[in-house]
Amino acid sequence: MRKQEAVEVVEIRKPIPVAEAVERVLSHAGKTGTETVPLEESEGRVLASPVRATHPVPPFNRSPYDGFAVRSQDTAGASGSSRVRFRVIDEIGAGTVSAKTVGEGEAVRIMTGAPVPDGADAVVMFEQTVEDGEAFTIRKPFEPLENVSLKGEDLEEGEEVVPAGSFIHAGTVAVLATFGYAEVEVAKQPTVGILATGTELVDVTEPLAPGKIRNSNSPMIAAQLRRMGIGYKLYDAQSDDLDAVAEAIESALTETDVLITTGGVSVGDFDYLPAVYGRIGADVLFNKVAMRPGSVTTVAAGSGKLLFGLSGNPSSCFTGFELFTRPALLRMMGANKPFLPHTKAVLGEDFTKANPFDRFVRAVYDGKTATPAGFNKSNAVSSIARGNALIVLPGGTRGYRAGDEVDVLLLGMEEGSAKWME
Amino acid sequence: MRKQEAVEVVEIRKPIPVAEAVERVLSHAGKTGTETVPLEESEGRVLASPVRATHPVPPFNRSPYDGFAVRSQDTAGASGSSRVRFRVIDEIGAGTVSAKTVGEGEAVRIMTGAPVPDGADAVVMFEQTVEDGEAFTIRKPFEPLENVSLKGEDLEEGEEVVPAGSFIHAGTVAVLATFGYAEVEVAKQPTVGILATGTELVDVTEPLAPGKIRNSNSPMIAAQLRRMGIGYKLYDAQSDDLDAVAEAIESALTETDVLITTGGVSVGDFDYLPAVYGRIGADVLFNKVAMRPGSVTTVAAGSGKLLFGLSGNPSSCFTGFELFTRPALLRMMGANKPFLPHTKAVLGEDFTKANPFDRFVRAVYDGKTATPAGFNKSNAVSSIARGNALIVLPGGTRGYRAGDEVDVLLLGMEEGSAKWME
Asked: Which of A422, A411, A367, A374 minimizes the C-alpha distance to A389?
């Protein structure tokens, strides 16, 4: 009897393409709302409203060089054989303003970043002068506004500088500071719960016993969320017991927007997640994706919550998070770039066995070649420790050869390179 | 007189190649030592000692499928016309161990991840059987160890899984958890100070006044450090006053390993940092780099501390941090991949003006093309808000054309892509 049930479940699982699965998840990602954070805590968040220029940039006509501010009309006719002479009447550094107005034949010594004084409309660089006490001469004429950074030439007041939905990086912070945003309106972060299931699991602090393995998925997902700056609630791992799992999930859903479970989504006798989704009335968006690893990844939605049923295999679990959970969380925060960045690379090793499903192979990408990170069975622990990318090998009837151009999803570039660019 | 001094300073500044400047900085980066953190705080840190397998992986002979564990010798001769029959004597899920030993003609129903019971040496998948109550038949023979994940086939006990000096990402955390590392030995983070100089600077919370701009470099650097997970001490910005700047720097150095200043490194009348380095007895490693922007970037070392004198221009300051400060901090932490990752891209726009110095152009890299992020003067605010990469255009006598292949340094891939992979 049991076997018959399992077969029925298998039969109703229709694999859908990865892109379609991603789309289904994103279409159920509701917005989290907004909140205000201090500028110094804004890095890594998603901007909820656009940054506008609250003043022109530059805010005044500025000298881009160290030199002398002059009236361009006074430089007319200057040449090597007929040098024109100026008297220096003042000196200003960045942050100071000359109280004087530059008159005929006069100049103000000026440092980079300082405002061009009244009367002047050009800056002569030191290198273009011969100094002589409180005076200097030049040998060429200057155009009006020559060597002047014009007020507003970079940005006009009111202009949108960074659109809502942007990821706030250090450059964004510089812009926010420039325009006086001591507080920043950002997207609220979803509350995410992590709940591992599996009778085989013991906690990281516990000794192993026969048949047991340590729960590595919960800390891993916590780290994936931590990288995104998103907090989490970590629930105690549950044994494979339908009632206990259902109860734990129902309880967790009362205090989370998104619940990530691991394990229990396959079709074994103790894979209770499908039954749990039925019991709590969540709509299963899909329970089979045409991908390896992670084909049993299941996503359900109900009461405005998203439930990610990731596989218990660490590699499948990792990939399921990056492909489905991460973009969903980013979409909930209104991010306009929620997907993993991708590029093309040269495949570093043969992958000759054809597979009807798309494969996502953990790999080391060095900016040119993507090489499988090792033993790549879905439960391999060693490959998950390596690599910064997923090679995408579309499903089909043929394998792939070293040297083929392949798509690569970039998991993060924080680790960097062992060598300075050649 | 003043002019003469400035000229002399200019003359003794010999630009050195960027790669050499990076190397000089790294050769002065002393190690920070190590500390222990809880596993859940280890993401983003640098591993101080290798992670070793504290047990084999898998820890026991494991079933990779749902099916039946049998003795392979009992399957000999099975065929479609001569099916072999087994009696099911027990059932085990992952995390449980059968108390029974599989004898002749016997089988144990087994779920994925469960240990293969004593006596058995092969697993028959459900799909390969016809069930019949508490028995089943098969139509093909099985090899010894067929469908068995062998104890230790992924990792042997004691094997090094992740080397010291590795960046700890989510996959690393999974490995640490698997092997029971509830605490992790990581590199101590350097104590970094940020001190902006410039009479023109007002704080982000202050209104602008004539000639003033807001201090955007300090919050920007704080965000660059925050992305690296490194804390910082933020000092009050200083006006361009030699005594005050020297005093602030001396005081900051008593409580920091690395001090980042912005501004004051050029050769204007109020650029006091060169004099400060002399006064505090720090060795200037270089004060001119053959790069744009940021050619005046100055790095000094003394008493085991590193002083980064970054330019006051936000783009120069940003680039100086990413090229010099970031790898130095990572090297101090023993990171084995301290450099910005790089790749090749197609230049998205002409850059026809030749420059003898290498240019680092802030750009939007989409996985294929790198397009300058906009107005790219070194003080442009708007370009710093955009882009995730620096295009590297080697100095020389020629310009570059759209379509040329160029080197690109990747500043971070956290932001992601607006589209799922095509």
From this structure: A411
Mean pLDDT across chain B, nearest whole number? 93
Q: Are A139 and A80 in contact (CB under 8 A)?
A: yes
Q: A362-366, long-range: CB within 8 Å, 24+ apart, which pairs?
A: A362/A315, A362/A318, A362/A319, A362/A386, A362/A387, A362/A389, A362/A390, A362/A391, A362/B171, A363/A387, A363/A388, A363/A389, A363/A390, A363/A391, A363/A408, A364/A388, A364/A389, A365/A389, A365/A408, A365/A410, A366/A417
Longest CA pairwise span in chain A (Å): 107
For residue B404, with 0-12 CB atoms within 10 Å meaning exposed, 13-18 middle and 19 or more buried, which class applies? middle
In this structure, CATH architecture of domain A2-32+189-332: 3-Layer(aba) Sandwich (3.40)
Name which of B402, B398, B220 is nearest B311 in CA terms: B220
For chain A, which residues score pLDDT lower than 50?
1-11
Question: Where do runs of H (alpha helix) occur along B196-238?
Answer: 217-227
Which of A:202-221 have CB within 8 Å of B? 204-208, 210-221
* Residue B407 Cα distances to A183, A334, B336, B362, B363, angstroms: 37, 32, 22, 12, 12
> Cβ separation of B270 and A386 shorter than 8 Å?
no
pLDDT band per the 50, 70, 90 thresholds, residue B323: very high
DSSP A285-338: EES-BSEES-TT-EEEEETTEEEEEE-SSHHHHHHHIIIIIHHHHHHHTT-S--
B385 vs A215: CB contact, 8 Å cut-off? no
- CATH 2.40.340.10 assigned to domain B342-410? The reply is yes
Say if residue A394 is preceded by a cis peptide, omega within 30 of 0: no
To the nearest 10 degrees (0 to 180), the angle between helices B273-280 and B242-253 is 50
Instruction: Give me the CATH code for the A35-54+157-187 domain, please.
Output: 3.90.105.10
Pinpoint the residues of chain A covered by CATH 2.40.340.10: 342-410
pLDDT, one tens digit per residue, over B70-116 is 999 999 999 999 999 999 999 998 899 999 999 999 999 999 889 99
* B91 in A contact zone (CB under 8 Å): yes
pLDDT digits (tens, 9 = 90+) for B27-86: 999 999 999 999 999 999 999 999 999 999 999 999 999 999 999 999 999 999 999 999
Element (H, E) at B155: none
Examine the pLDDT at B227 and tell me if it is beyond 50.
yes
Are A155 and B381 within 8 A, CB to CB? Answer: yes
Residue ranges of chain B that CATH labels 2.170.190.11: 67-138
- Mention the CATH class of domain B35-57+154-187: alpha beta
CATH 3.40.980.10 residue ranges in chain B?
Answer: 2-32+189-332
CA distance B145 to chain A (A): 17
Q: Chain B residue closest to A212 (CA)? A: B95
Domain with CATH 3.90.105.10 in chain A: 35-54+157-187
Residues B86/B105, Cβ–Cβ less than 8 Å: yes
ipTM for this model: 0.93
Q: What is the CATH number of domain B67-138?
A: 2.170.190.11
pLDDT band at B375 (very low <50, low <70, confident <90, very high): low
